[in-house]
Amino acid sequence: MIPTAYFLVLSAVLFVMGTVGFLVKKDLITQFMCVEVMLNAANLAFIAFAHSASSLNGQIIVFFIITVAAAEAAVGLAIILLVYKQRKTVKSEDISLMKG
Amino acid sequence: MASFLFATLSIICIGAVMGMILFKNQAYSALCLILAFICTGGLFGLLNAPFIAVVQIIIYAGAIMVLFIFVIMMIDVRKGLSPEKKRWFLYPSIGMGVIFIGELIFIINRALGPSQTLASDALGSPKVLGRMLFTKYLYPFEITSILIIAALVGAIVLVKKKDTP
Description:
A: mainly alpha; Helix Hairpins; about 0% strand; B: mainly alpha; Four Helix Bundle (Hemerythrin (Met), subunit A); 2 domains; 7 helices; about 75% helix
């Protein structure tokens, strides 16, 4: 059997890669994909803990997270399309209005 | 066998996410992300969760990524991406990521102890999961349907043409 810690370390690596990608990339669509990677890493941690506790509740929660992620993707992509229609850009640095 | 599968899937997954970050073209990034999601689905299968693995591949790698690719198709990438500005932000964010992952691994190491491998027999078969969804988790399940309706209506209202009276 594979230790649970391996899965948790993989989940941590994926989460941090999502975070760094979100900070490094400048176009909205890739940043949104990085958010999906972070959600996926959280799912992996949930499933790993559910496996190690031999309980099914973690899997149910992952099911709900996937549903919420689908809803979030629909609304988020609609917002990105709206931003592109109004500003003709999908770069996050071009739409920053809060420069002090 | 299981550890070989784990090593292969995790290496492909990390490589795909790395490729997603490094590609300039958003369509290639989306394809890399599909590969990463499929690998994660395989890992879920390795963790006795076949139903969640299938749901992951159908909903994430299927539905959500098709949505992404549709949006990439609608957006003119060359016009939408203005030329690169100075990227002073790159190195601090990578350093922050290294610190963050060090912290996380330290916490995992501290929290789990030497080696914790329970021989788990809780198989997440669709029958058992479906029964739990419709008994113990009935209210969250119904509330999720309201959430999806709200997201659907919200997305339609957001991208609707405003010129109709």
